[in-house]
Amino acid sequence: MKDIQTRADVEFLVNKFYDQVIKDDLIGFFFTDIAKIDLSKHLPKMYNFWESILLGNPVYEGHPMAKHFPINEVSALEEKHFNRWLQIWEKTVHDNFEGENVENAIARALNIARIMSFKMSNARN
Question: Pfam families, from UniProt (predicted)?
């Protein structure tokens, strides 16, 4: 296996991740029923997001936190949901890549999950 080094690697990773996450019993409904994401529009944004984070190419424009507050209002995004998201992310990363950027991908996802969980919880209180 190789490290995450190119846009193609990021796209492969994100595609593999979404293949799993939208089918997940615990969190899939957030994507399919609550947010009703259109993968043809959503995935390119996620490619840009992760390319910016993992490869340092500033191609992502947006406010990911803001997109999650309306979802949280419909159905609470709880710590257990972020933990599952992270579990699927880690497995997907480790199943397909190895190297320095792999550890970065997991560390960054962990930080994202913690911050999102904290902010979503505070928004409900």
Answer: Bac_globin
